[in-house]
Structure formats: C-alpha cells, structure tokens
C-alpha cells in the first residue's frame, strides 16, 4: 500500500478546473517529484493533499485512510507537513519562535525537544540565529527555516513546494543536499520544483503535470532521458 495515494482528483477555482483526474502515488521512504510548467497545477495538487483546497472529485488516502475533506491541522496531526511556495515564515517572530510553531499539534515535550535539536543539527546556521527576527534572514536561510518548521511536526511525509525558487545556484545545491539528507533520515518527500533537472536527479518516481493533468510518469532516471521532458523542461535539444 502506498503511503500516499491520490486518485482521480479534481480541484476547482470557482468554475475553472485547476486540476482534473490527477492520480499519483508515493511509497514510504521515497522521493517523488512533480514537475510541469507554471500554472500546470503543481501547487494546487499539494494544497489539495494538505487540505488547504477542497477536492471536488476523487480521493486522497494517507496510510490507507481517506484524508480528503479533513481540515489542514488534522492532516498535519496524521503526519503530513508542507513547506509552501514562498516559504511563508512569520517574519516578525524570531527563528526560535518559528521553529516552535511547527510543533503546535504535538504535546510530547521531551520528544519535541529532541526533534528540535535534530533540526538544528541539520540546519546549523539556524542555531546561530535563534534570537534573530526571521524576516531579516537571507532567502536561503528563510527556506531552511521553513523546512525546519515543517520537520519539527515530525512528519512521515513532507510536501516541498518550489524549495529552490529565488535562490543562488550555490544555495540551490545546498538545499537539494539537505532534501536528500532529510530523506535518508526516514522522511518521505513529495517535491514540486521548477528546477526539473535537479528534481529528477534525486527522484525515485516522477510525474509530469500539464494543463492540470498527469501526462507522463516514470522513474526520475527515465524521465531525464525522455525526449518530451528534455525538450519542454530541461532546456536541451
């Protein structure tokens, strides 16, 4: 049984169908990526999974349990965290306070403290800035903070929405190394990413979303060699 299974999902914005019949699965322990052009419905798909957007048709199951229709905070309690596009940190709060907010659904204080320490080991730069106002961090540091906040919720599955957006190339490499390390630590990842090459390089499974529908799927290695993917998303002849 997949950890996450999205089956025939439609999402509407008013009368406009943003995604139609989207089906994908995510196996536990894997990195799965969803690529596509701007406006293809990638973020819509993630927002439907985490309950931010309602599903008009289809089902979403997590660990075999239907979650479509649940409120977002209840989905977080089940073990899904999202790092949204644009980071959306709380800029007026400190780095420490932002991280603490990630554990709002938990009550196991000792385990929270241990997970907080693990997060700070993963992001040592944040440890140096715990008392700093989050809005004064660099773009790369804010991305790290958004990821740290999501991880403190102790998710089985983390949804990453455009983690490299707006970052310098050197920081992009660093963020992808962190994503691989998070996965090595046992967290399953569903990644939406504009940098298709970097995403496919680390993906066990990949899907291409075009005009709100899944158009291709396969392993990351397979899609890296697919002529249509090369032409449309990798910028090569």
Summarize the SSE layout with pairings.
Layout lengths: L3 E10 L2 E11 L4 E5 L6 H8 L7 E6 L2 E2 L5 H7 L1 E4 L11 H7 L7 H14 L1 H4 L11 H13 L5 E5 L7 H16 L3 E5 L3 H7 L2 E6 L2 E6 L1 H5 L2 H8 L3
Parallel strand pairs: 3-8, 3-9, 6-7, 7-8
Antiparallel strand pairs: 1-2, 1-4, 4-5, 9-10
Helix pairs in contact: 3-6
- The rounded distance between the terminal residues' Cα atoms is 39 Å
Total beta strands: 10
Question: What is the level 1 CATH name of the largest domain?
Answer: Alpha Beta
Order of helices and strands: EEEHEEHEHHHHEHEHEEHH
Number of helices: 10
Low-confidence stretches: none
Shape: globular
Taking Cα atoms only, what radius of gyration do you get, to the nearest Å?
17 Å
CATH architecture annotation of the largest domain: 3-Layer(aba) Sandwich
Any overview of this molecule?
- The protein has 10 helices and 10 strands.
- The protein has 237 residues and is an alpha/beta fold.
- The strands form 2 sheets. A 6-stranded mixed sheet has the order 6-7-8-3-9-10, with helices on both faces.
- The longest helix is centred in the C-terminal third of the chain and has 16 residues, at 169-184.
- The chain is globular.
């Amino acid at each position: 049984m997949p950890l996450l299974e999205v089956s025939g999902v439609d999402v509407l914005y008013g009368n406009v169908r943003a995604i139609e019949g989207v089906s994908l699965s995510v196996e536990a322990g894997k990195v799965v990526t969803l690529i596509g052009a701007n406006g293809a419905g990638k973020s819509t798909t993630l927002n439907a999974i985490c309950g931010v957007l309602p599903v008009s048709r289809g089902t979403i199951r997590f660990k075999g349990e239907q979650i479509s229709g649940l409120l977002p905070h209840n989905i977080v309690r089940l073990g899904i965290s999202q790092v949204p596009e644009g980071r959306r940190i709380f800029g007026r709060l400190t780095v420490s306070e932002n991280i603490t907010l990630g554990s709002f659904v938990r009550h196991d204080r000792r385990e929270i403290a241990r997970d907080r320490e693990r997060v700070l080991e993963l992001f040592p730069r944040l440890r140096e800035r715990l008392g700093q106002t989050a809005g004064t961090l660099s773009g790369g540091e804010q991305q790290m903070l958004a990821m740290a906040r999501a991880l403190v919720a102790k998710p089985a599955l983390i949804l990453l929405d455009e983690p490299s957006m707006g970052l310098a190339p050197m920081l992009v490499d660093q963020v992808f190394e962190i994503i691989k390390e998070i996965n090595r630590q046992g967290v399953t990842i569903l990644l939406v990413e504009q940098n298709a090459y970097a995403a496919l390089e680390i993906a066990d499974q990949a899907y291409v979303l075009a005009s709100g529908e899944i158009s291709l799927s396969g392993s990351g290695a397979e899609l890296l060699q697919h002529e249509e993917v090369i032409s449309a998303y990798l910028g090569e002849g």
